[in-house]
Amino acid sequence: NAVGIYESARGVIHRIAAVLLVYISVHHSLFLFITKRGKLEFRAMMPNLQDLKDVIVNMKFYLGKSNQRPRFDQYDYTEKAEYWALVWGTFMMAATGAILWFPTFFTGWFPAWTVKIAETIHLYEAWLATLAIAVFHFFFVIFHPDQYPMSLTWITGRMATEACKHHHPQWYERLTKENSDSADPK
């Protein structure tokens, strides 16, 4: 039966993708908590009071109430929000996916309705992630007027100097100062 073969293949592919997602998440977590650069990246991704101030400055700028743009550091508040949404979503998908993959094991510890709850959360988290990528992420990395036709940073891992000066001026100035300080042979 063709439908049975399709369902079987879909299930195998889905579980392989799940294992890869968990592996990548563990690898990323180890990078963040073990390496020097990872620790710096983790600190840079933490939300702070400046992010709230940047939201206000950005809203005023885009509503035409001010000519001042926010002076973003390495990551702006939208990048941080998207990152932490990914962390939360990945955790939810892994936890609920594990319950759905091994329902007999989990119902030995939790009530049977836990499986139905996990199924509902898993479904809606998948839809939320898909819509977040299709709307929010695609806008900011492809369709935003500052990025159009798209930022190539996701391919090259590098940001053009002018793009950095424009969107992350505080970070650019800090990097420039750090580079000039390290080049200064005092």
Topology:
Blueprint lengths: L1 H33 L1 H10 L3 H14 L14 H25 L1 H5 L5 H31 L9 H4 L4 H7 L1 H15 L3
Helix pairs in contact: 1-2, 1-4, 4-6, 8-9
Number of strands: 0
- Major sheet details: none
Beginning-to-end CA distance, first to last residue: 77 Å
Task: Note the beta-strand portion.
Answer: under 5%
- Count the helices. How many? 9
Structural class: mainly alpha
Order of helices and strands: HHHHHHHHH
**Portion in helices:** over 70%
C-alpha geometry: elongated
Describe the structure.
The chain has helices spanning 2-34, 36-45, 49-62, 77-101, 103-107, 113-143, 153-156, 161-167, 169-183. It has 186 residues and is mostly helical. The protein starts with a helix and ends with a helix. The mean pLDDT is 92.
Which properties best describe this structure?
single chain; 186 residues; mainly alpha; 9 helices; 77% helix; 0% strand
Give a quick rundown of the structure.
This protein is mainly α and 186 residues long.
